[in-house]
Amino acid sequence: MEGDEVIGALKHPDWLQMALPLSSHYHPAMHRNIVDHHKILVLSIFSGGEVLNLMNVYSDNQHTAIEHLAARVHSLPPFIYMAGDFNCVSTTWDDYEHGESSTAISLQDTTSQIGLKWARPSNHRPTRISPNPNQRSNVLDLVFLAPSEILISMPRLEHNLQGLSDLDIGPEPPRSGRQTIKPGSEAEKSFISDILQDLAAIPVAAPATKESVEALADAIVTVFSDAWLAHSTESKPTKRSKSWWTDECSETFGVYQLSRSLADYNKFKKACKDAKHDFFDERIAEIATSHKCLWDLMEWVKQRKLPPCEAIRNGDQPCHDMDDLWDTLHSMYNLASGCEYDASVLDELPDEPELLKDRHVLALFIVLANACLRVGHWPRIFKESLSVIVPKPNKPSYAVPKAFRPSVLLITFSKLIEKMIASSIQFDAVKHDIFHPNQLGGIRQRSTEDAGLILTHLVRAGWVKGLQTSMLAFDIAQFFPSINHEMFMAVLCKQGFSPILVDFFASYLVGHSTVYCWNTFQSDLQSTDVGVGHGSALLPVISGLFIAPVMKLFYIKAALLNMTLLSFVDNGTILAQSKQLDDNNVGLRKAYKIIYLLFVAFALVLEHDKTKLFHFSCCRDAYNPSLDLGYAPHTGATPLKPKTYWRYLGFYFDRGLTFHEHICYYATKAFTTRRLLYRSCVVPIATYSYRLWYFNGTHNKGAMNQLKQMQQKVALWIMGAFRTSPTGGLEALAGLIPVHLMLKKLAMRAVYRIATLSDTHPLHSMMGERLLKQAEPHACSAALMTPAM
Questions:
Q1: Peptide bond into 391 cis (omega under 30)
Q2: pTM over cut 0.85
Q3: How many angstroms separate the CA atoms of 588 and 582, rounded?
Q4: Last residue of one domain, picked from the residues 654, 673, 692
Q5: pLDDT band of 92, cuts 50, 70, 90
Q6: 610-659 tens-digit pLDDT
């Protein structure tokens, strides 16, 4: 009440002491070895052998704390933070102050000598608001930071935390906003209109030099960049943000806040209702007619944050600093940096005829694309990228960099040019037999099922001839980021590509840089002059061309071993067939050494710990020997043990090729997707790799029964019928094809597909004489098949 004595809250008699020290022998005290002053508080934090000093100061009207610091500044250690109420005015931090006091000059000299600098708040204004309107407000509360931390930890004034007269200073929260243009808005129309107008002003003369190619690319990119900056606005979505919210909702809500009338509230609710209807009607129409992707509405397709519970480890050391994290990721995704290669291994391959003339790859309808190829130059702006670090699914631990992969985001216009070039190169490489027939990944018309079908055929053909089949599967570590550029250029020249294309790749592969993105954190620009980024449309072609000579050299060096090598992008499989499994192991060890040395020559690394051994056998309880691989960790007392079931490219192989485990896995997995449309989502999953086990003469009654049971349950779910309802009637009412007819239809489609394959496709070499075409018959081809003696 007015006239009563003012008593601080902690000394007021109505305040009770709620806690007492448990033991009277504890005597908390502040250390005075750094600063001994009752107006100055120093906090020291120890981290990893490093001492971080922070200081809090209150300086009275006599400036005793400032004078104490100035007198002892030479004995003070470096500080990273100093803040408090300094009761000191200066033109440096007070825009309305005139003149500079000696105390302010002394304070600035002191902070400079201990490595600090005044940090201007992002919303700078007076920190003490005078209650007297005739008195001017002042800036008395200051924050001093290390110069390197000012931009990262910029302070911000907090209002109404300590009353109306004093403002607190807190850290500036990180900006969560992003530049956006609302679809269908006037800003989007103006954005597109400006782009079309500015692009029309660029002359279409074909550039003839590298400088003119750079200028044309920069001009095109500048058009998009300027239009985006002119028409985009910053959006800061929060947990309470509504995607359907419109400007009309904001206007009616503002009117209601001022009037608080029922009529304005009803107008606001009507505006929200109309906005919801318009938004969701447009969303439904877009999904139903344009995208036709019903799963876009599911949560699992939306952005997923990285696992926050574990620190990435670089060896045995956790990465607690962002710079350490960027260095660890950069070293992981640039394994080929500094690796030696041996191009002399290519001398054993015959020279290929020159191909890919101008009419094949230069007949592009975009002037810049033509210029990039003719000049042999890839513009600098196309080499900048953003590498988003995403986790690999179903990993037991995310504490190692190998549990993540980079997804490289490039300029869309550059990806269009890359896609056109890749399409031309791929078909010409197949036409001229540049790719090895057993390369089954990254090449059109070759799929995972082709690889599984070839593997299954070889095993069954071996059984007919009385041979045992063993396989050794290996994995290339960080294949795409590890492609050596110099070795790739030597490969292109050896394969007989046009010098124009070789010059283009010589420019395309160098000078790349990227920014790593981890959640909301971004690194500085990092040089990535090794490998090929995951986002490149040329990646499948480059990787296929790079692996092709390895495949051909293996068949030259391992000719006496009678081995079969299959390749699917960065996975390889060596197959051995003989009368005894022990003989297979001997051959597999020799073949693995050959392929390992070839990859070393190509500056690639095999992950020995991921190598798998599997023995096929048509007999139950058959012999299943281990293999001394000759490389750690599978050597000596810890040989490579064979698997009971082998998961390869999504197939689950068992030793007898019964595919019971495979069918059981996918039939069970099919039920987990029943929320999606059955015919578009469940059937492809349940019938994945049916060509491996569904053919004339096979015993697949058990597999067919499992699929029939699966379809019966789906029909019950679709129709909502009783469990005792007849299956045939449910399938008819639900419009489902019976399982045996569905598989027959899919098998006929597979037969029709064979006629569209290239003449050198490896499947043709497995067929009978009628379907061989121009392919050379394989040793286990059906055309040469004879029963075992």
A1: no
A2: no
A3: 10
A4: 654
A5: confident
A6: 899 999 988 776 788 999 988 888 888 889 998 888 888 888 898 888 88
| 258 in the same domain as 131 | no
Neighbours of 179 (CB within 10 A): 11
Q: Are residues 538 and 450 in the same domain?
A: yes
**Is 775 contained in some domain?**
yes
Closest CA to 487 of 439, 427, 424, 547: 547
Which distant-in-sequence residues (6+ apart) come within 8 Å of 89 by Cβ?
97, 101, 104, 138, 139, 140
DSSP state string for 264-294: HHHHHHHHHHHHHHHHHHHHHHIIIIII--G
Query: What is the DSSP code string of 734-757?
Result: HTPPPHHHHHHHHHHHHHHHHTTS
Amino acid in position 670: A
pLDDT at 273: 92
Residue found under tokens 């040793």: 779
Rounded CA separation 768/782 (Å): 5
CATH code, domain carrying 105:
3.60.10.10
Structure token pair of residue 311: 């620190």
> Are 116 and 263 within one domain?
no
pLDDT given for residue 671 in this prediction: 59
If asked whether residues 473 and 492 sit together in one domain, one would say yes
Q: How large is the angle between the packed helices 412-431 and 367-375, nearest 10 degrees? A: 60
Residues in CB range of 193: below 8 A, 6 or more apart: none
In the structure encoding, which two tokens stand for residue 30, read together?
Answer: 């502040």
CB atoms within 10 A of CB 737: 14
Nearest C-alpha neighbor of 56 from the set 69, 71, 70 = 69
Q: Which amino acid, residue 280?
A: F
In Å, what is the CA distance from 289 to each residue of 183, 365, 485? 17, 30, 44
Query: Per the domain annotation, does 545 fall within a domain?
Result: yes
Residue 469 CA to residue 453 CA, distance in Å, equals 15
Residue 317 lies in a domain: no
Residue 550, both tokens = 């390895």
CB 689 within 8 A of CB 650: yes
Report CA torsion sign: 311, 312, 316, 320: negative
Per-residue confidence at 294, pLDDT binned at 50, 70, 90? low
Count structural domains, the chain: 5
pLDDT higher than threshold 80 for residue 259: yes
pLDDT at 359 over 60: no
Tell me, rounded to whole angstroms, the distance of Cα 589 from its chain centroid. 35
Asked if 611 and 596 count as a contact pair (C-beta separation under 8 A), the reply is: no
Candidates 542, 420, 371, 450; CA nearest to 758 is: 450
Query: Would residue 262 count as lying in a domain?
Result: yes
Asked if 440 and 419 sit in the same domain, the reply is yes
3-class SS shares of the chain: helix, strand, coil, % to 5: 45, 15, 40
Q: For 470-526, how does the pLDDT look when each residue is reduced to its tens digit (9 = 90+)? A: 999 998 887 887 788 888 888 888 888 888 888 888 888 888 888 888 777 778 788
Instruction: Indicate whether 568 and 554 sit together in one domain.
Output: yes
Q: Describe the crossing of helices 727-734 and 701-719 by its angle, rounded to 10 degrees.
A: 60
Q: Which of residues 636, 654, 672 is at a domain's end?
A: 654
- Residue-wise pLDDT tens digits, 679-704: 777 888 888 888 888 888 788 888 88
Cα-based torsion angle of the residue sequence 666, 668, 669, 673 in order, rounded to the nearest 10 degrees: 130
* Residues 192-213, mean pLDDT to the nearest whole number: 79
Amino acid at the residue 151 = L
Burial pattern 671-703, b for ≥16 Cβ within 10 A else e, equals: eeeeeeebeebbbeebbbbbbbbbeeeeebeeb
Q: Are residues 627 and 664 in the same domain?
A: no
Mean pLDDT, residues 576-587 taken together = 91
What's the domain range around 722?
660-784
Classify burial at 479, counting beta carbons within 10 Å of its beta carbon; exposed 0-12, middle 13-18, buried 19 or more. buried
Asked if 218 and 250 sit in the same domain, the reply is no
Strands, DSSP E only, in 600-727? 612-616, 645-648, 651-654
